[in-house]
Please model this.
Amino acid sequence: MIVLDAVTKRFPGTPDPAVDSLSLTIHEGEIVVLVGPSGCGKTTTLKMINRLVEPSDGTITVAGRNILDVPSHELRRGIGYVIQQIGLFPHRTIAANIATVPTLLGWSAQVIDDRVEELAELVDLDPSMLRRYPSELSGGQRQRVGVARALAADPPVLLMDEPFGAVDPIVRARLQEELLVLQATLHKTIVLVTHDIDEAILLGDRVAILNIGGHLEQYDEPAEILRDPSNRFVADFLGSDRGIKRLSLISISDIDLDRGPVVGPEASTEEAVTVMNGYSVDWAAIVDGDQLIGWFSTEDLNGVGSVADLEPRAFVTTLDITDSLKEALDSVVSTHTSVAAVLDGDRYLGMVTTDTISEEIVQ
Amino acid sequence: MELASEVIAWFVDPVNWQGIDGIPNRVWEHVQMTAFSTAAAALLSIPLGVWLAHRRIGGVVVVAIVNIGRAIPSFAIVAISLPISIRLGLGLGFWPTLLALLFLAVPPMFANAYAGIAGVDPALVEAARGMGLKERQVMTGIELPVALPIVLAGVRIATVQVIATATLGALVAWGGLGRYIIDGFSTQNMAEVFAGGLLVALLAVVAELLFSALEKRATPVGIQYDEPIGIPK
Model:
């Protein structure tokens, strides 16, 4: 647990403090994202935790210990640190870079070698890279090495300063995903700084929105901040697409699904029409038990005796129960019928429509 | 053409290869003086430059002050160091020459050491500190190896300058290859003057090549410099 209590940082020569009496509690095993516009003191706050910036006032405790009671180099060896520029040492091999902190801690060569290999696997880095030098690696690979290096001595706390700011959007998305996968097994206490609200929403268990001068405007789970921004600043910072952003945090499994206009494979034409009328639509899906067979429209019923006689059309898009409502919305708006079928594996669960989604936004 | 054959004749004359005034001895004196003065200047300037740059003390001001040293003609430095040396009781010859060459060698070495360290990517230093390297470890383990090619370039530049300028030592009664130039000039023996100049140039070229090779060897694998390293701006 990291506790900031009324922490203030004044830099010499500037009238206003960079961070003004900030209090913040970060629980063990959670990812807290500090986000805000430039000048909000988020990086300064982060750097105060490992004493790269010394607080002017207030106290910071990490795992119950006041950070000022520990020599700064010892404190830092127990806190992983990842920065945007990564800062790999160009004159050392990737293996030596990853081994930085274990070497400082005096681990034996064998233990270090084993640990380096383990970490390479953990961050999905080809072991042949370990003998190379940083200049030979791509941006994404370097970033992975940066994370491996920070994790090397298995510190309980990880500080990340815009860790994915310098890579292209495709690599960034992948690295973000990998961080979440990693965190699911490692359960580190992570403080991450970004200026990108989408990254904050994606990665943060909780998000701290900071305003100029290190003022904490709101500190909560991302879904809660999106649902109920505490003031105008937060709402503006979240952007006008707040509702849609929130959809990315809601899984389809979180909502009640309607079965939709569904008929059995043996249903008569009359039954089918009744079902369609009930939903005021001109189509229906065919479901056999929990297997989704396909769908048909009113016109397909012309001249057939029952549903069994017609040629079912295939669903172009289906959703998985684990998909988010944002993905559901994307599927729904890209079909003519404004509907998408939800499957769990190959089991049919129900339908998502624009109505289902907007109901969630309005809630 | 006449001069060329005279110079060749001078070089093949066995007299010029023997005794105190022989080529081997003069080259040896010259090499010794160069080694002493550059080594002393390196000890004075490089640790200081590295430390000041690591602590970010001084910045442009320090480098500017040191650079003023470059603007003073070496001839004047020799002239100034002569009375200083005599007053210190160090006499003529060796000491005033060493003193003058020290003045000459310090600025490029200091400037390169300072600029080399100051120019190390701040992200490296931040990452190093952030992982718990102590200040001394940051300096010797990260900054110095990364800046080493630039620091060594300063040594190379200084050495070549010292080799060329050590000829002025002959003016204050020291030996070295400058003797041929000064003595040849006073006896109107142009072949000797020319031969002396040739030997100095040769020595400078050899030193340049040697240090370039050393720089290459000392450049850590993984660091590539696209341009040849010179005097930082």
User: Anything to note?
Assistant: Chain A touches chain B through 29 residues (CB under 8 Å).
